[in-house]
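Notebook entry, structure prediction.
Reason for the run: the old model in the group folder had no record of what sequence produced it. Starting over properly, with the input documented here first.
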Amino acid sequence: MKEMTVRERLLTAYSGGIPDKVPFGAYHWSVCYKKYGCFCWMHELKLAREYGWDVHIRLNTVVKPDHIFSNYVYNVGSSPTEQYHNFYEDLGDVNITLKIKRKEKVTYVERLIETPAGPLKDVTEHPIPGTGYGWLPNPKRLEPLIKGKEDIERIKYLLNPKPFKNRLEDAKEIIKYVGENGLVITTLYSPLDYLLGEAMDQTQLLTLYYDDRNLFEELIRIFQDFALRSVEPYLEIGVKIPLMGWIYASPSYGWSPVIWEQTLFPLLKEQVDFVHSYGAYALFYDDGKMKKTLPFLKKAGIDCVETLTPPPVGDVTLLEAREIMGSKTCLKGGLDSIGVLQKGDKDFIGQEVERLIREGSEGGSYILFNSATISWETPLENVQAYVKAAHKYREKYRPK
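New structure, fully documented this time:
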């Protein structure tokens, strides 16, 4: 088999074909930042040249700031999801008043949002970077943005339907620049991820399904339509892979198989059919427990599933995933970012990489990837051990 370009290799795997060798990469932004002080898409390409892995350049459909997410503070630098989104996007007919109060370890952000349909208000607690778990701890919602039916019409004013024209022009230039040296992808979030799941408290959202099913379905429909409108321009210019983030819809979040069958599966199927209508491939992302949702993903026609986080954080192995999904679905992930990549020694990392490449590529296509973003605490020596092992074993287990 002839040597493929990075773009050819990844697209072949995502389409269910067999590439010249197993593609590999990582969610690597902390590494990029450590090495270069920046993790923009150009530094991603630089890191890919250094490590020789198959890089994805991601164009995010959620703008910065995301008016639902309230991410006005502690956006760390430029990133691949923000490369041309890191400016303020104004909203027509909406005024936002911010009150920001700094404490020792957290910053409180209170927003009063005036819309033509009435006011919205929320309060968010943002941990100061370096004071809690992880590189940039998640914010905590103290007062949700959506509190009841009266907020339905108001929330619509925060959802801009399409990206600015200059964003799409930039996207075309990025695609042209990256060429065959990487794969430019975009995002298609579930109606919960960074959307309805940020506008309401988690417990409030989970119980709303039972307390007021009609309101739950009306809200989720609004955000589903917004998610589809947001990704459509990127599919129209030829982006072939939308990363479908469904973390907030995961069983790890609290959603039951019954809710998945009755409500979430039809939304997922709608997104998959939408993606396929543009000749693109649907990449499903969940870094939590996936075993119970894999049958739904197969039924929906998902082309690739990730991150397949192994126990104890996740609940499925590559062999189990292959048995459920069959040979036509690409598997991606399986490398434990904490237990192996952060805490393992070089020998253990090598053993796990060999096992994953061998098992993952049996009976179908496979992309070696880590189960979540490489943690800030992961030694660079471990990342280099991963890269070295991946190159070694993807040569050893090349398709015949």
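Summary: Residues 226 and 399 are 41 Å apart (CA to CA).
The old model has been moved to the deprecated folder.
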